[in-house]
Specification:
homodimer; about 230 residues; alpha/beta; Arc Repressor Mutant, subunit A; 2 domains; 5-stranded parallel beta sheet; 4-stranded antiparallel beta sheet; about 20% strand; DNA-binding
Amino acid sequence: MDKGKILIIESHPETPDSISNLLDDEGFAPATTDENDNVLETAASEKPNLILIDMESVRADVWELCRNLKEDYETRKSAVILLSSQSDEELVVKAFESGADDFVSKPISKKKFVARLKAILRRMERNETKKIKVKDIEIDLDEHKVKKAGKPIDLTYIQFKLLYLLASRRENVFSRKEILEKVWGRKVYVTNRTVDVHIKRLREKLGEYKYPSQYIETIHGTGYRFL
Amino acid sequence: MDKGKILIIESHPETPDSISNLLDDEGFAPATTDENDNVLETAASEKPNLILIDMESVRADVWELCRNLKEDYETRKSAVILLSSQSDEELVVKAFESGADDFVSKPISKKKFVARLKAILRRMERNETKKIKVKDIEIDLDEHKVKKAGKPIDLTYIQFKLLYLLASRRENVFSRKEILEKVWGRKVYVTNRTVDVHIKRLREKLGEYKYPSQYIETIHGTGYRFL
DNA sequence: GCAGTATTGGCATAACTTTTGCAAAATGTT
DNA sequence: AACATTTTGCAAAAGTTATGCCAATACTGC
């Protein structure tokens, strides 16, 4: 599974205890760039979820870099995490004030560090919650189960993904294009009509007979949304 | 300035070094609840941006609490921050795995702590959906929703685009030609009269009965503008 | 590997919603 | 008042979505 895009800014990615080596082991697939590259450009084109900056190895003005990353339209949504072996008050406060989203003091246990990163990634992609409860519907991602009013509902693979997507951002309107991309994946030859059909079947299983829909609303000309 | 809603879960908010006292000094206005209250309910109704849980003072199962907060639709967007005087690996990892967004070991310098909280609040703000607010009208692009005085208004696709265009640059006068281009696109054979019709219907739905128009003004011989 | 079952994709048509522009009425301008 | 522009009601036209159905594919148990 995709754990999220990570960009690491450090000078010596080869050393055994470098951040990139640490994350490689954990199944992340981080990209690396060093201070000599144009960090801002790399970040803007890669659009990583996380940007890890090792303060020891960056010569340039880190605060300036942070501020730029947060101001640039392309990168402002990436979480910036600073790592340093120092941790005095002034430094930490300055880090956060410059726009950093987290500050980690080295050395840190690998497990703690990874857990922290995962938490931040999770916070960015709100829909990675394991369980969602909406109205009388309960969705369990791990068990791949859906219950309505406590009673299990049998959904097929696509139906489940569809429901999960819609419910993960309730009220948000998803266009068919978006749905196709998120449920079927990028390179699909499935048409918009197919989305309709699956919506229909999902509605049936959720027990929608009457109007207006209790769960899935059609936004004419636009898409669908979970109420 | 509003610094964000904070809910603190601790048993003894009165003690001098309690979290709530610490934050009071910093200009935050945290609410407090203790383990005996129904934390979930309080959180769901308050919808705080931040939920601070002092692990020392909570008797109930903290992990369970975290998980519940993250599953419930009302509270899952609140950032949950755990505080503890312990910080061993197992505990920290478990905290993040249960859904916590941050883990802070006590004691911590007030300034560091506050800087961290501000960073988290800032990040949450960034993730909020963009809304345009004009007078008592609220337009939400992601949810494809328009509200007037809090009450939802049902707009069709074109009506929505039209309103969005006009409201996005208030006071600016849009010619019909401009409107046609921006709402319908370049290569259309739709006449100016059609724009009028849509303006009319939009006015109707916005509840414009009397003169002069409260929202959409006609500039005779020129076009329309949102007031 | 086969037969039976479940799932999926999408066509065709029905049901429904939205859009369009004419023509008449109303309003604004000079 | 004479003319230009905008507003409005209406019905036809265009567009979108729902649904029944069937074929293709995937899955399951033997």
